[in-house]
Known about the structure:
Layout: H1 2-25, E1 33-38, H2 39-46, H3 54-68, H4 78-97, H5 101-112, E2 115-120, H6 127-171, H7 192-213, E3 222-226, E4 232-236, H8 240-257, H9 262-271, H10 278-289, E5 295-296, E6 302-305, H11 308-322, H12 326-329, E7 333-345, E8 349-358, E9 371-377, H13 382-388, H14 390-398, E10 401-404, E11 407-416, H15 419-426, H16 466-473, H17 502-524, H18 540-551, E12 559-560, E13 567-568, H19 574-583, H20 586-589, H21 596-614, H22 622-639, H23 647-654, H24 656-663, H25 672-687, H26 693-714
Parallel strand pairs: 7-11
Antiparallel strand pairs: 1-2, 3-4, 5-6, 6-9, 7-8, 8-9, 10-11, 12-13
Helix pairs in contact: 1-6, 2-5, 6-7, 8-10, 8-26, 21-22, 22-23
Amino acid sequence: xxxxxxxxxxxxxxxxxxxxxxxxxxxxxxxxxxxxxxxxxxxxxxxxxxxxxxxxxxxxxxxxxxxxxxxxxxxxxxxxxxxxxxxxxxxxxxxxxxxxxxxxxxxxxxxxxxxxxxxxxxxxxxxxxxxxxxxxxxxxxxxxxxxxxxxxxxxxxxxxxxxxxxxxxxxxxxxxxxxxxxxxxxxxxxxxxxxxxxxxxxxxxxxxxxxxxxxxxxxxxxxxxxxxxxxxxxxxxxxxxxxxxxxxxxxxxxxxxxxxxxxxxxxxxxxxxxxxxxxxxxxxxxxxxxxxxxxxxxxxxxxxxxxxxxxxxxxxxxxxxxxxxxxxxxxxxxxxxxxxxxxxxxxxxxxxxxxxxxxxxxxxxxxxxxxxxxxxxxxxxxxxxxxxxxxxxxxxxxxxxxxxxxxxxxxxxxxxxxxxxxxxxxxxxxxxxxxxxxxxxxxxxxxxxxxxxxxxxxxxxxxxxxxxxxxxxxxxxxxxxxxxxxxxxxxxxxxxxxxxxxxxxxxxxxxxxxxxxxxxxxxxxxxxxxxxxxxxxxxxxxxxxxxxxxxxxxxxxxxxxxxxxxxxxxxxxxxxxxxxxxxxxxxxxxxxxxxxxxxxxxxxxxxxxxxxxxxxxxxxxxxxxxxxxxxxxxxxxxxxxxxxxxxxxxxxxxxxxxxxxxxxxxxxxxxxxxxxxxxxxxxxxxxxxxxxxxxxxxxxxxxxxxxxxxxxxxxxxxxxxxxxxxxxxxxxxxxxxxxx
Length: 740
């Protein structure tokens, strides 16, 4: 207290000294000089220059001083410049306020008849004033030093008082005892929540004591103490944060992976001490979400998107750091496939998921290699896609290279998807048009003819090009448009980089073969297409097929549609198709059919073709593959009518072999990962979102980003060792088995 009183007295004396010095400085001020200046003359000076510029004000003062024989260097100009600046600003304001020539003339006449009294003072260089100024500057420095020392002393005193209070409260040495709350509860009867809270409190007390007592430059490593039961308790300070962060990340991954609700996890964490609390998990989710830049799409449609350049940069940096798939980054060029697919969420919500994949990555054809960059509620129409995906389209069209920590990678874009999406994006009309193939100008009526030659690279054999599509889309006569109704949305992606999807090719062709089989069964049971009643006891052939499918553990049957009131059935999935093709006995299903051998050959050879497409076909075997597909199409024409040939069959015969020559293994361009992502988005919308417009879509995209970030580190312990009961191999089950 004595030191504080002495410092206060010293500050008071110092302030009194400063007031005396300041009073002394104003004693010898000379008298002010007055110079009258005509206002119109002042207006003429500022008329042609910027009046508010400092250099112009100084030039005006010099001009006035020259007119009156005053030396500029002997005058205090700082206050004079401020005064004159205000006067000039006021004069300009009055001139601008004039409306018309009459008011301006009236104002100029008034300025000519009035004068402005310019006041200023001369500089005095007396020895006394110079001495006072030097003393004042020295005293100002001393005062600054004293103030800094006083502030430092106050800070040290506050820190000492705080540390003392902490030590007194934690060690129980303060004299002020807290009021007792009564008899304390036995710690052995604490609940799990009370034990965890008490443990956390004791740990914080120990940490506060160590923080207050430890010397500078030293950190605690281990504390060992005994509790009331003489049991040793160790408190380690090493890697506590890293270990806790890893456990919290694993909890976040499990919550997102299995759609665990917050309430369920909170109850689970209360009953298990080893799990991170719900508060830690929620804060960690917020920290992870802050790393992702998810924005709403521009336009009238509801949706969210992310920058493909940012996501591609992060992914390439991860690949470079993990030393995985290094061969992709060696030549400085990366192949990126972009694709989109629409999916229906419920009955009324239709969204389009837009993803990209890095060709050559180990998981490029799976869901883990499909990186989501856009979810938009938009119908699959050209104008709607152009507006809803406008932000993504503009970025892709302008993206040519990516800079990853100083390494420049050239980006080659490829386009994938089903034929409906590819036709829309490339500006080609749908399957019902006269020229529905986006790779060549083959008429739809000639899709069945395997004797003609069509190509996606040779213009003489009908190959299309981006320039030709743009040119034909501007023509008004449909007969010469070749079904080119719009310009491509991605003009920088050539036709040869648009790759057919083998998954949808297998599904659509398999649907046709199964559909023809079901039509034959309905004919045998005298059940027409418009029938509204299905009696299994009267439809022996259809019932036989139902029993066959159900024996394969596939839930499928004929039913009467509530809307159309007709007998119908659902489509089979990919694994279900594969199971049917590998186990069906057509001689049992359609006995006595005149074309039974051709139909059997048609089914078996289609399985052979799809099996060949799963692996990389050597270039010397591609001609044989081409002949195999042509023979298959000719067999199809012998069994069914030529109008049943679909665009997918045309692509299989003519353009799949060319894609094999250009790109090698087509399994890298499969849409299987995107189809799985569609199922995820549908489930997450109902189980992990608030169902509120763009906010729900943003929650879905953030969840997918969190899974991508945490999956590589935490998925290993979650893999189940499933053994297939059919082929006895590990990693899949009987329904997803592709072995013959």
